[in-house]
Amino acid sequence: MLPNSRCETRPPFLVLLVTSAQDQLEARSTIRQTWGRARTTHGKRVVTYFLLGYSREHQEQLQNESSLHKDIIQKDFTDSYYNLTLKVLMGLEWVDRFCPSTSFVMKTDSDMFVNVDYLAELLLGMNRTNIFTGFVMRNFKPVRCKSNKWFVSEQEYPQEKYPPFCSGTGYVLSADVASRVWNISGIIPYFKLEDVYIGMCLAELKIEPVKIHSQRKFHIGKVKFSVCKFRNLVTAHKVKPYEARIYWKALELAANEHCPGDRTA
Ligand SMILES: *[C@@H]1O[C@H](CO)[C@@H](O)[C@H](O)[C@H]1NC(C)=O
Ligand SMILES: *[C@@H]1O[C@H](CO)[C@@H](O)[C@H](O)[C@H]1NC(C)=O
Ligand SMILES: *[C@@H]1O[C@H](CO)[C@@H](O)[C@H](O)[C@H]1NC(C)=O
Ligand SMILES: *[C@@H]1O[C@H](CO)[C@@H](O)[C@H](O)[C@H]1NC(C)=O
């Protein structure tokens, strides 16, 4: 399934690719109505698409959803956690084939809150090429404990340490980097942890993660909501659909309020 993108006639500035599971309809509806709403911010177009694999049980409903919203990218691999790398590569392939004229691509998940306006503002101050940014994980070792969700055997990954990577909760690539990652993925053996896999591709390409700001803007855990806190972050994790709606409404209502240390307009 392909979305309706209009990339050739109106290239977006930022494409948000949100990994989603078949039964997360409520999360997708919420994202469409809140932070993922297609819009223009700082004069730049931002669009959101959802990445899904196949599950027979929900396919008809998903087809209906796709014909209504035209924002779903799907291929016929089994939708499962250890196929997440396939899902993200599908997104990068889509950008490479159908939307290479975008400036940036963000990969994120459906339990995140993304402050897209602030992200766009920060990206406007950056180079348009060679960018890979997010919450950087350095010197991480494979988990060798079998009962762990992130267990990795020595056969899957014999080395002691992972290359630097950005947490899969939210990372941003410039479009050239997205295309190069997709291109090189053909020769990097499959690895089930998606964010580590992207790190492996980038290590091969010799691209280092960069900082988007001197302060932390990508949060990989839950962040206690306040208008001023959320105005100044890019991602917060573990956000339920009803919470995303409350946060969104609060941010809208407080649009004219000032926060300590506000950036001057
Ligand atoms: C999908 O749409 C068709 C046609 O509108 C409808 O008959 C069908 O019940 C819908 N299926 C689901 C699962 O929503
Ligand atoms: C990933 O998808 C492929 C293709 O559908 C399937 O054969 C495989 O079993 C899936 N892997 C996992 C771990 O679900
Ligand atoms: C942008 O790219 C130029 C040329 O490659 C480089 O000199 C400069 O440091 C880069 N700026 C940032 C903020 O990364
Ligand atoms: C893709 O990879 C091939 C070789 O593996 C290389 O020749 C080509 O320049 C690459 N294209 C891009 C866009 O990086």
TrEMBL record:
Give the EC number. 2.4.1.-
An example GO BP is:
lipid metabolic process
One short Pfam name that applies is Galactosyl_T
Q: Which GO terms describe its molecular function?
A: N-acetyl-beta-D-glucosaminide beta-(1,3)-galactosyltransferase activity
Q: How does it sit in the membrane?
A: Single-pass type II membrane protein
Subcellular location as annotated: Golgi apparatus membrane
> What pathway does this protein act in?
Protein modification; protein glycosylation
Give yes or no: UniProt keyword Lyase.
no
- Highest taxon in the source lineage: Eukaryota
Q: Does the keyword Magnesium apply?
A: no
Q: Which UniProt keywords apply?
A: Glycoprotein, Glycosyltransferase, Golgi apparatus, Lipid metabolism, Membrane, Signal-anchor, Transferase, Transmembrane, Transmembrane helix
Q: What is its main location?
A: Golgi
Q: Which reaction does it catalyse?
A: a globoside Gb4Cer (d18:1(4E)) + UDP-alpha-D-galactose = a globoside GalGb4Cer (d18:1(4E)) + UDP + H(+)
What GO cellular component entries does it have? endoplasmic reticulum; Golgi membrane
Q: Which family is this sequence assigned to?
A: Belongs to the glycosyltransferase 31 family.
This chain belongs to the protein called Hexosyltransferase
Q: Which organism is this entry from?
A: Scyliorhinus torazame
